[in-house]
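Help needed: design a sequence for this.
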């Protein structure tokens, strides 16, 4: 089940993350690394400033996807090892709230893309070398699985940065 899409503004947001090249068949490998980022933060006494997310940077469905598993922080921190720091771009985002099993995110994404097209909205994305390069394409995981084990009740927000 998804709520109606809308356009929202987002401020720039510092975050820490790990990055990986995955395929559609191995995409869960990057999602599994969110715990690594939380562990990195905990070891440094840095509290998360929001829910974890996946940030899709490059999407090439025939080959690989470049995805980050990240966690927002209140202020920039220096990364080390596999963990790096960056800032999510500020701006307008096409958003959609999905409540349900994560397998429904493919359909929710299609709904958001179709709605944006109908509204005449353009994404901050460029096609290069047969792949989509995104400025900000996020899956934000609002539900803590340790608090809600029923995956059919999980809440996930999709937020795709708009151009301009």
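Sure. Designed sequence:
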């Amino acid at each position: 089940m998804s709520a109606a899409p809308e356009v929202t503004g987002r401020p720039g947001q510092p975050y820490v993350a790990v990055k990986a090249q995955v395929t559609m068949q191995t995409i869960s490998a990057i999602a599994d690394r969110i715990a690594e980022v939380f562990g990195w933060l905990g070891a440094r006494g840095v509290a998360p400033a929001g829910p974890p997310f996946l940030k899709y940077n490059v999407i090439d469905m025939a080959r690989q996807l470049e995805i980050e598993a990240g966690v927002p922080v209140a202020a920039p921190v220096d990364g080390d090892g596999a963990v790096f720091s960056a800032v999510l771009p500020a701006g307008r985002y096409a958003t959609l709230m999905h409540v349900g099993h994560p397998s429904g995110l493919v359909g929710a994404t299609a709904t958001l893309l179709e709605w944006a097209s109908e509204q005449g909205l353009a994404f901050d994305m460029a096609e290069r070398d047969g792949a989509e390069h995104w400025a900000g394409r996020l899956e934000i995981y609002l539900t803590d699985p340790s608090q809600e084990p029923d995956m059919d009740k999980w809440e996930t927000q999709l937020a795709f940065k708009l151009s301009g």
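Residues 7 and 159 are 9 Å apart (CA to CA).
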